[in-house]
User: Fold Aspartate aminotransferase family protein from Thalassobius vesicularis.
Amino acid sequence: MTNHIFGRSTKGSLPVATAGDGCYLIDATGKRYLDGSGGAAVSCLGHSNAAVRAALHDQLDRVAFAHTGFFTSDPAEQLADTLVAHAPEGIERVYLVSGGSEAVEASLKLARQYFLEIGQPQRHRVIARRQSYHGNTLGALATGGNEWRRAQFAPMLVETTHISPCYEYRDRAEDESVEAYGLRVADELEAEIQRLGPDSVMAFVAEPVVGATAGAVPAVPGYLKRIREICDRHGVLLILDEVMCGMGRTGHLFACQEDGVAPDMITIAKGLGAGYQPIGALLVQGRIYDAIAKGSGFFQHGHTYMGHAMAAAAANAVLGEILNRDLLTRVREQGAKLDAKLRSSLGQHPHVGDIRGRGLFRGVELVADRTTKEPFDPARKLNARIKAEAFANGLICYPMGGTIDGQRGDHVLLAPPFIIEDSQIDDLVSILTHAIDTALAA
Ligand code: PLP
Assistant:
């Protein structure tokens, strides 16, 4: 067993990361790895960023931790203000936690408490989508629709219903317009709310661009607007999970800004700390906060490390870099180049079915047959082979299986640092193409 459990089991089986240098990680032998996925869309500024390092040193010299039951801190207040200033309309409050799962858990509990406080205690049901991942803690895992991740824990998961994802490549009929397709799948939410009983539904949760379980699958234009209308019609809260796709990854600070939709709550994490500190946040509409503030006055939730001053200081520096260096424009420009390069190298490949995404958040879906879109047999473990082959050749990318239904299908997720140079995009695509071909030949 080599995953995530440190001690004897990892010694000798994984390289030891000893340094970071811009878009590269370096191991103890001096080997350099181009970080084409930021782990899983975390390292948006690359490694060893000078501004973030300075901010962390500075904060450490002041104060690292002061419990939020007693104190606030300058970095936490500054971070909340910056996030609100750039967030979609109506977002006025920020709840700082330590990661993505914590942000999603907080959103579910805040939604529940909101309905209790406004006198609708019957609302407790959550609807999400089949192709989704919202975290590994039990509430977040129940919300996610990925069968492979859920299966072993199914008896422990609160009942959540899942509708179809917005997955144009596989689900749009040939004679259906993109717009009609988006409305058709969005309308599944209406049907599901009616089936469950509109008064019992608390929230709909979705990723605007699906990350880990699907490989950067964006909602088609119009889909999220229709979802917003349906939620409004039934008094259901819209929670958008931007843990992976938020914080500039798609070329907008919040991915939903491209869709022109303002949700009731947004969860963010990964790119917020950019790997320099563990941090996540739940952003909420003012009226939700007000209902609780003017009601019981106490959100029945909390974690020891929430609002951590060091984590907030890192996030302030990250946001400073993204906004002051206009990295959002750079994400759009370099994202377009990455997309073009992927299409020129892999667009005609007999086993590449789809290349998709937004900004520097891109996915490549692999198929056994391009015409029928038949996936590879999962027993072939194609995604694991691609990962190993790319890694051996100095590229970190994020291939996964279960793309279609949590069981079948392979994709590669790419999420390089926003500072990636043209020549590094060339290297990334060339190593990836070679890894795919070598894995397919095995
Ligand atoms: N939500 C989404 C969309 C994610 O991609 C992830 C992690 O990959 C999570 C939530 C969970 O975040 P964390 O791993 O920080 O708990």
